[in-house]
Amino acid sequence: MTKTELAKILNALKRMDVPFVLAGAHAVAAWGMVRSTRDIDFLVDVRGDLAGKLASGLKEAGLKTVLRKGDDQDPLRGVIRIESSESASDEPVEIVLGIRGMPKGIFDRASSLDFLGLRVPVISPEDLIVLKLLAGGPIDLENARSILEIMKGKLDMKYLEGELKRCRLSIAKLKK
């Protein structure tokens, strides 16, 4: 994804007043360990027919989008995939339309960091740990472990433990 295309995405989200955070591997790299990835993930909280309006707004900004809505069994409400018009080998952007059980206030706790030369809100390390534990895959658990280890002493453990309890999850799941 080029910086110009990324700026178009961010501007479209702002223009449509859709709160968003950088999530996924790039957010893990901000708070934990760097790992390879094939896409750039943003998380939004869009429900119902707003997903179609968001996809249309991104298309109007000149972006090539594909909308996939999640069903009742899918932890993701849906994903809008944006392919680079420059090169098929560029990292696509995926906008996750929401995750069932995600913490409230997730966008308020984000930190603004530099990403590809642009200021972008990045999900907090505590919220990222919660989402990784909700996902529960082996890579997700390793990502959460790395954030917990690298951010040790800097995390709001009271908040994190409260969210894990709300989600019926345990930090013990991260112990090796």
Topology:
Layout: H1 3-15, E1 20-23, H2 24-31, E2 40-44, H3 50-60, E3 64-69, E4 78-83, E5 93-96, E6 111-115, E7 118-122, H4 125-135, H5 138-150, H6 157-166
Parallel strand pairs: 2-5
Antiparallel strand pairs: 1-2, 3-4, 4-5, 6-7
Describe this structure in words.
- With 176 residues, the chain is of the alpha+beta class.
- It has a single domain, classed as Beta Polymerase, domain 2, CATH 3.30.460.40.
- Helix content is 38%, strand content 20%.
- The strands form two sheets. The chain has a five-stranded mixed sheet. The protein has a two-stranded antiparallel ribbon with strand order 6-7.
- Strand 6 (111-115) and strand 7 (118-122) form a beta hairpin.
- It is globular, with a radius of gyration of 16 Å.
- It starts with a helix and ends in a 10-residue tail after the last helix.
Summarize this structure as a short list of keywords or feature phrases.
176 residues; alpha+beta; Beta Polymerase, domain 2; two-stranded antiparallel sheet; 6 helices; 7 strands; globular
Taking the alpha carbons of the first and last residues, their distance comes to 36 Å
Shape assignment: globular
The H/E string reads HEHEHEEEEEHHH
Q: What is the helical fraction, as a range of percent? A: 25-40%
Strand content: 15-25%
Enumerate how many helices there are, as a single number.
Answer: 6
CATH architecture: 2-Layer Sandwich
Number of strand elements: 7
Main sheet attributes: strand count, strand direction, barrel closure: 5 strands, mixed
CATH topology: Beta Polymerase, domain 2
**Count of discrete domains:** 1
The rounded Rg comes to 16 Å
Q: What is the arithmetic mean of pLDDT?
A: 90
- Strand sequence of the main sheet, in spatial order? 1-2-5-4-3
